[in-house]
Amino acid sequence: MRINVRRFWRPAFVLFMIASIVPFVLCMHVQAQKKSAWKGKVDVEDGVKVIKNPEKPLYGEIKFELEEDLQIGKEDDDNYIFERIYDVKADRDGNVYVLDGKAGRIQKYDKKGTYLQTIGKKGQGPGEFQMPFGLFIHPKTGLLYVQDMIRIKLFDSAGKYQKETVLRTYPSEFSVDDDGNLWVVANKQMEKGEFKSLEVVGIKGEVISTIVEVPYRIYTKRTGEDSTITVVTGFEHDLHFAKIEENTCIYGYSDKYELSAVDKSGKNLLKFRKEESAKSIVAPYIKGPAAANLPKYEPFFYSIFADDVMRIYVLKNNVMAAKEKPKEFDIYSKDGYFLYKTMLPYGRAFCIKNGYLYARHILEDTGLEVVKRFKIKNWSSIKNSAEATK
């Protein structure tokens, strides 16, 4: 039997080419879909890269799957009683530090919740606290920095007091860079009104650089020669920041949705924005004397923090006005891409580290303040970069 090779070869070649081309075309289609998924724009303004994000996040909304695995707090043991928790942090070994502002001490527990030690106490001596408010644990050295009114007090990783830095004004937020310099949001009273500035401060309290200075309008009324009334509603436009890596931080002034990455000299490294319309402040928040100083529009955000993989969380609702409601966050990559929207049950005194969320909680039946730790079960599947834009 004679086979016509030419007649056989032609359809076989066509089938071969189709089999080769179809996967390639499908691959190109998938890549095109990925590249077109992000609807934002990248520009350069005054030599600085600007990420202009659309209103919708790149990967949509995500739910953190939280599973409670630890509770710290007891009524019958002084080492586990908290009068007023102002901050909660975890170190690289999983030890938990609870800053009790009212009791004037820090309680340290191991990763199983077992009490280890008390750091500091009420008083005015070295290593003692008058009104501690904020806690920072350096990720590389393990050193503890505690804000106590206008002082930042330093303790070694064993909890032994080392020294302190006296600031010029009371800071509303602070962090520490890898050179040991303090980054603080300082409150300033000037002839033209109240202001806030983001400053880099040396260990002796000297201002190394001022990153930005913005107005901070609050209601203040003098009631006597030596007394005034100050009202803060939480709707004031404010300055917020968070350290993301080494000597770099992200800051923003909440009168517009724009965040900037800067180094310690104040050099702008990156800016990112989100397309979003301003919302008018409505009753009942515009009632009372404090309304005289309220802005026309709500702040675009109320705080900023970063987790240990440098995702940036931007709080979108006023925790003072909606204390019991879940907190809405926009989540960004460190290079400014809007990744997710999410809701978290806690908006204050918490951190996210090594796939766990640490938070202050008040038990409904007893009113007891406790610390809860939640495992984020879907932690490994949460993206931290904008892969779809590459």
Instruction: Report the CATH superfamily.
Output: TolB, C-terminal domain
Helix content: under 10%
Number of strands: 28
Q: Biggest β-sheet: count, sense, barrel?
A: 6 strands, mixed
Give the total of domains: 1
Strand coverage percent: 35-45%
Under the CATH scheme, the architecture is: 6 Propeller
Strand order of the largest sheet: 1-2-21-20-19-18
Question: Which regions contain 5 or more consecutive residues with pLDDT less than 50?
Answer: 1-9, 11-18, 24-36
In DSSP terms (H or I, runs of 4 or more residues), the helix count works out at 1
CATH top level assignment: Mainly Beta
List the helices and strands and how they pair.
Layout: H1 5-37, E1 41-45, E2 48-53, E3 66-72, E4 85-90, E5 96-100, E6 105-109, E7 115-119, E8 132-137, E9 144-148, E10 151-155, E11 161-166, E12 171-176, E13 182-190, E14 193-201, E15 207-215, E16 219-222, E17 228-231, E18 239-245, E19 248-253, E20 258-263, E21 268-274, E22 303-306, E23 312-315, E24 327-332, E25 338-344, E26 350-353, E27 356-362, E28 369-376
Parallel strand pairs: 2-21
Antiparallel strand pairs: 1-2, 3-28, 4-5, 5-6, 6-7, 8-9, 9-10, 10-11, 12-13, 13-14, 14-15, 16-17, 18-19, 19-20, 20-21, 22-23, 23-24, 24-25, 26-27, 27-28
